[in-house]
Amino acid sequence: MITHLALLRGINVSGHSMIKMDALKKALENIGFQNVETYIQSGNVFVDTEEESASKVGFQIKQEIFKVFGHEVPVVVVDKNDLLACFSNNSFLKEKEVDTKKLYVAFISTVLRSDSINDLKISQFKPDEASIDGNKIFIKYAVGAGKTRFDQKYIEKKLNVTATVRNWNTVTQLLKMYEER
C-alpha cells in the first residue's frame, strides 16, 4: 500500500463547498481507499491505495467529491518526501528568529521550472518573499496571508497551475501524521 496525501483546495472556506470530513472519509472508503484519515476541516486527506500515480489518485478523489457532494474541488496530491523537503529546502527556516506564523507553502499540481519565480513577479509584492522548490513555493508573508495579493489565485493565474496553500503549522502537523502512519 502507498500512502498519498490529498490537499483539497477551497472547501469549507467562508461557507463555500461545505463537506463534512466524516462524510468525505466514507465516500473515499466506498471507492476503495483504505486507512482514510483527515486533518482539520480545510481538506487534508491521507489515503492508502495500491495506485502509485499521485495524479490518478487526485483525479479519483476529485471525481468522487463531485459525484457525492456536487462540488468541483481542485486536488493536489503530495507524498512524504514533499513534506520533508518543506523542512530541508525552505531557506526561510534558516533565518534567525523566523516567525513561522508568517510561513506558508503553496503546493503545486506540477513541478515548476526554476525560472518560474520570474513569472510570479514577486518583487511587486515586497516585502513578501517567495522561493520555488520543485512542486512547492515557499512563501514568507511580511504581515500575513490575509493582507496580500500574492495568494493562491494569483499563483494559479500567473503559472497556469492548480495550487493550494497551507500554513506552516499545518505542514508541520501533516508531516507528523505521515510519520505516525
Describe the protein in words.
- It is a single chain.
- Helix content is 34%, strand content 24%.
- The protein has 6 helices and 8 strands; from the N terminus they run E-H-E-E-H-E-H-E-H-E-E-H-E-H.
- A 4-stranded antiparallel beta sheet has the order 2-3-1-4. It has a 4-stranded antiparallel beta sheet with strand order 6-7-5-8, with helices on both faces.
- Strand 2 (34-39) and strand 3 (44-49) form a beta hairpin.
- Helix 3 (80-88) packs across helix 6 (168-180).
- The chain is globular.
- The N and C termini lie close together (12 Å).
Question: What's the layout of helices and strands?
Answer:
Layout: E1 2-8, H1 21-30, E2 34-39, E3 44-49, H2 54-69, E4 75-78, H3 80-88, E5 103-108, H4 116-120, E6 129-133, E7 136-140, H5 152-159, E8 163-167, H6 168-180
Antiparallel strand pairs: 1-3, 1-4, 2-3, 5-7, 5-8, 6-7
Helix pairs in contact: 3-6
Outline the biggest β-sheet.
4 strands, antiparallel
Envelope shape: globular
Question: What is the average of the pLDDT values?
Answer: 94
Strand content: 15-25%
Question: Whole-number radius of gyration?
Answer: 16 Å
Q: Considering DSSP H and I runs of 4 or more, what fraction of the residues is helical?
A: 25-40%
β-strand number: 8
Cα separation of the termini: 12 Å
In terms of structural class, how would the helical and strand content be classed?
Answer: alpha+beta
Secondary-structure element order, N to C: EHEEHEHEHEEHEH
Q: Output the number of helix runs.
A: 6
Strand order of the largest sheet: 2-3-1-4
The unreliable regions are none
